[in-house]
Amino acid sequence: MIKLEKKDILKALETITVAGEGQNMVESGAIKNVVTFGDEVVVDVTLSTPALHIRKRAEVDILKVIHEQVYEKAKIKVNITVEAPAAKAAENAPIKGKNIPGIQNIIAVASGKGGVGKSTITANLAVSLAKMGFKVGVLDADIYGPSMPIMFDVEHEKPISIEVDGVSKMKPIESYEIKILSIGFFTAPGQAVIWRGPMASKALNQMIFDAAWGELDFLLLDLPPGTGDIHLSLIQSLPITGAVVVSTPQAVALADAKKGVGMFLSESIQIPVLGVIENMAYFTPAELPENKYYIFGREGAKNLAADLNVPFLGEVPLVQSIREAGDYGRPAALQTASELEHIFEEITRNVVEETVRRNENLPPTEAVKITTMAGCSAVKK
After folding, report:
1. What is the DSSP letter of 338?
2. 358: closest CA among 106, 136, 127, 96?
3. Are 222 and 147 spatial neighbours (Cβ–Cβ below 8 Å)?
4. Is 158:118 a contact under the CB 8 Å cutoff?
5. Other Cβ atoms closer than 10 A to 51
6. 298 DSSP 8-state letter
7. Contact at 8 Å (CB) between 284 and 293?
8. SS3 assignment, position 276
9. In whole angstroms, how far apart are CA 346 and each of 126, 260, 338?
10. What is the pLDDT along the chain (381 residues), one digit of tens a residue?
11. Does the pTM of the predicted model rise above 0.85?
């Protein structure tokens, strides 16, 4: 299958002039985003005029130049929005939340769809970070399907109220040296959370800002699947350092993971994507340790990361013990001297390296050198 390149698409789009602006689409800023995946390309365009004939002409021109100059059989989708010039400047200003004293880095762990193991990855990243010497917290932001209480064997615990500087705060539950808050601590087992978006967002804000998190090197946000109301609320509330996107190699999961990456990189949000993790990458039977069976496809998330020009952080196999560890409340990365411990440690180190590089504006090679020391100060902003 042919692999379209973003640079080739942009070069072709430079030949199109926007009516009434005197500049090509790329120079004028009308092209907001170009995403390629195999022989597919999505072009997001913002125009300053609502005239239907100009919008239609822009779409026709885009289809024509890509087919003629790049690949005649390309599958192209053009998304055109209209925006008044005055609103454009405000829209382009990235959303940034307010800092939480004592918390150095906030990492959002997201997935385009449910069932790809995002919460399992979050839990294992957390314990791996703690084993490396970092102070870690986890906010279970998956309001409608909280998993952290079970995964850390604290589902019957209840946060208590403590006084900090004369103010009443929630004390997070601690397990395996991780500080945890989840809506699951405040609901009865089996009770469904039937809330509209604003109510869910308010509950999350209380768990974030009314909690005694103390000093943390990393606060991991286990986000709900998708790209909805809760995601935007958290992005507005918090200064997120970067995002990690989890996907399986399966085509339907990759399509949604692409949307998740696009959300964080959009001009109105501008949150760095630290990378993509491929979960359930392959299956190896215990009796045939040299064999790998690619049940959901091979290297799909790795190829997606390359297409979107974001780091690939590593792959996690489909292993029964990972599921059992989550159900028993002891994340698999805690299994000392095991292959799983090594896998999660390597992925976690890659996350730390990307965080260091973003914070210090360092090239990858320098970030690798810095993160050879556990609990290094370079993760601090």
Report:
1. S
2. 106
3. yes
4. no
5. 12
6. S
7. yes
8. strand
9. 13, 23, 13
10. 578 888 899 999 988 886 555 678 888 888 888 888 888 889 998 887 766 777 788 888 899 999 999 988 889 888 888 875 544 444 444 555 667 888 999 999 988 778 888 999 999 999 999 999 999 999 988 877 788 989 999 988 888 888 888 888 889 999 999 999 988 887 766 666 666 667 777 777 788 888 899 999 999 999 887 766 677 777 777 888 999 999 989 888 888 888 888 888 887 778 889 999 999 999 988 788 788 899 999 888 899 899 888 999 999 999 888 988 988 889 999 988 788 899 999 999 999 999 988 877 544 544 444 454 444 555 555
11. no
* Three-state DSSP class for residue 35: strand
Cα 28 to Cα 82: distance, rounded to the nearest angstrom: 14
Q: Are 103 and 219 in contact (CB under 8 A)?
A: yes
Residue 139 three-state SS:
strand
CA distances from 16 to 12, 52, 70, 245, 376 (A): 8, 17, 14, 34, 49
Q: Of 228, 227, 246, nearest to 115 (Cα)?
A: 246
Residue with tokens 């790998």: 292
Helix (H, G, I), strand (E, B) or coil at 364: helix
Distance CA 30, CA 193 (A): 42
C-alpha closest to that of 108 among 299, 196, 236, 202 = 236
Parallel, antiparallel, or unpaired for β 242-247 and 273-279? parallel
Q: Which two tokens stand for residue 328?
A: 């028993």
CA distances from 189 to 70, 116, 142, 194 (A): 55, 23, 15, 14
The answer to whether the beta carbons of residues 19 and 57 sit under 8 Å apart is yes
Three-state DSSP at 171 gives strand
CA distances from 232 to 9, 227, 237 (A): 30, 8, 9
Rounded Cα distance between 58 and 44, Å, is 11
Q: Alpha helices, DSSP H only, in the chain?
A: 6-13, 25-28, 52-69, 85-92, 118-131, 148-151, 197-209, 229-237, 251-265, 300-308, 320-328, 339-360, 364-370
Q: Please, which residues have CB within 8 angstroms of residue 114's CB and are 6 or more apart in sequence?
A: 145, 225, 226
